[in-house]
């Protein structure tokens, strides 16, 4: 993770947690400032499959409070990293458990999409952004504000073209995967991610928003909310995610610290045989 202004201090953690010799050295220097100061601060880390070699903080927590530096335990809205840390991980666990075949068409086993355009799409199409679903979420404008109406609309929407013909990054693919995970498991996405991914990795402070006031106080502020005139802290900054109660599969929902992100990616860079065994 990196971003920020130039005033952070590197903290070499190569001696932490019984670290082993590295394959190659990593620079232990904080990230350089972006032109025009595109963000106020960051928590950053450098590492590989063997662990973290260096980490630190840079800049300030809130540009409106320039005397308050960024902290290591700052909680961030992880935005589209939700796709990786929640959706892809839970889908991987379902594949490992034999509950999902990546190349089976969804209409063959999922009644909600049978007879609709998504019936010919596979989980692999959704994971690789080749399902050719609409690019924009645009949930309220198309389907209203009722969660069930949104679900029905998303799962019945037309495709741009036959699946597999083009790669187009879209939030909707992750939203559909989240619905799929809930259908196959009989559990909500937040409960599934917590039991299968976050708890096994020790990510005990990782939650979908909105967060209680005490936890929200540690959060980095995000977008300016036109309704309140304040920057959001502890709730999803994306309107579509807030519309779905903060539990939204395409991102913009979970809140966690940089240390918990490091834990998750350390597993993904580790031994091949351990990557999916998060929930056992």
How does this structure look, described?
This protein is an alpha+beta fold. The protein folds into 2 domains: 9-82 and 193-274, no CATH class; 102-188. It has 9 helices and 8 strands. The strands form 3 sheets. The protein has a 3-stranded antiparallel sheet, covered by helices on one side. Strands 4-8-5 form a 3-stranded antiparallel sheet. Helix 1 (82-96) packs parallel to helix 5 and helix 1 packs across helix 6. It starts with 8 loop residues before the first strand and ends in a 12-residue tail after the last helix. Mean pLDDT is 76; it is low at 1-27, 248-255 and 271-280.
Q: Which class best fits the helix and strand makeup? A: alpha+beta
Secondary-structure element sequence? Answer: EEEEHHHHHHEHEEHEH
Beta-strand percentage? 5-15%
Beta-strand segment tally: 8
- CA gyration radius, whole angstroms: 20 Å
Helix run count = 9
Unreliable spans: 1-27, 248-255, 271-280
C-alpha termini separation: 28 Å
Q: Give the overall pLDDT as a whole number.
A: 76
**Order of the strands making up the biggest sheet:** 1-3-2
**Major sheet characteristics:** 3 strands, antiparallel
Share of helix, binned? 25-40%
What is the 3D shape? globular
Q: How many distinct domains? A: 2
